[in-house]
Amino acid sequence: DTAVSQTPKYLVTQMGNDKSIKCEQNLGHDTMYWYKQDSKKFLKIMFSYNNKELIINETVPNRFSPKSPDKAHLNLHINSLELGDSAVYFCASSLRDYTEAFFGQGTRLTVV
Amino acid sequence: KNEVEQSPQNLTAQEGEFITINCSYSVGISALHWLQQHPGGGIVSLFMLSSGKKKHGRLIATINIQEKHSSLHITASHPRDSAVYICAVNNMDSNYQLIWGAGTKLIIKP
Questions:
Q1: How many CB atoms lie within 10 A of CB B87?
Q2: What is the pLDDT along chain B (110 residues), one digit of tens a residue?
Q3: Chain A residues with CB-CB distance to B43 below 8 A
Q4: Beta carbons of A63 and A42 less than 8 angstroms apart
Q5: Do B70 and B5 contact (CB within 8 A), yes or no?
Q6: Are B90 and B72 a contacting pair, CB within 8 Å?
Q7: Which of B21, B100, B29, B33 shows the shortest CA–CA distance to B68?
Q8: Neighbours of A14 (CB within 10 A)
Q9: What is the β-pairing status of strands B29-37 and B83-91?
Q10: Do the chains contact at A101 and B45, CB–CB below 8 Å?
Q11: Among B19, B20, B1, B27, CA closest to B102
């Protein structure tokens, strides 16, 4: 009974492709996040949505675009993938802004 | 200097030992989080603290706001506790964004 689920878990793709990572939470939370974990294992926030509205948009390339069709879903679309986009991407949700967050399993993206 | 510092970076202990992981921060915070990341990569949120102490099973988390310090304790440690433990804070001075520590890699030997 997964609380925050991401798909796919692994994604290998070629440079220049466009790909999406899906995230769904069944916790009834209002806020969802996308994080990128770099090679040094630091987690950096990319986007935060509260009730389908963007509230945090860190300095990420325009090639990254979040889409929130409803408050239970926050998908991440990446256009024109580059080698440097290879990382693990985590989706998370919390009841409200800045309360305890629950994380998805992560999606390991490898761009070749 | 990182705004969130964890110590130790690596910790190896025998099963049954009492474990302490420390987190110090230098910014004003609204909350502090302890998270656990398993070798498979999944992250689990353990605690969110704004003051005092919380306990969940064998895990205890404390925070001292005046000293800007938090500790995560594990009692009667078990090999399944082996993971990376991460401290993160909501920075009041930066729109409550999360600032992450580098993590503490814990290995519990049977």
A1: 26
A2: 678 999 999 999 999 999 999 999 999 988 888 998 876 656 777 888 888 999 989 999 999 999 999 999 999 999 999 999 999 887 777 656 678 888 999 999 99
A3: 43, 90, 92, 103, 106
A4: no
A5: no
A6: no
A7: B29
A8: 8
A9: antiparallel
A10: yes
A11: B1
Q: Which residue has the tokens 């005092």?
A: B52
CA dihedral A32, A36, A37, A42 (to 10 degrees): -80
Residues 6+ apart with CB under 8 A from B2: B101, B102
Distance CA B18, CA A8 (A): 38
Tell me if chain B has a CB within 8 Å of the CB of A39: no
Q: Please name which of B59, B63, B100 lies closest in space to residue B81, comparing C-alpha atoms.
A: B59
User: Three-state SS across A26-79?
Assistant: CCCCCEEEEEEECCCCCEEEEEEEECCEEEEECCCCCCEEEEEEECCEEEEEEC
Phi-psi category of residue A9: left, alpha or beta, with phi > 0 → left and psi -120 to 50 → alpha: alpha
Contact B97, B88 (CB under 8 A): no
Residue A83 vs residues A13, A22, A112: alpha-carbon distances, Å: 10, 21, 6
For chain A, say whether B96 makes contact (Cβ under 8 Å).
yes
Of B30, B43, B48, the CB nearest to A103: B43
Tally DSSP H helices, then E strands, for chain B: 0, 11
Q: A62 Cβ partners below 8 Å, 6+ apart?
A: none
Distance CA B98, CA B90 (A): 5
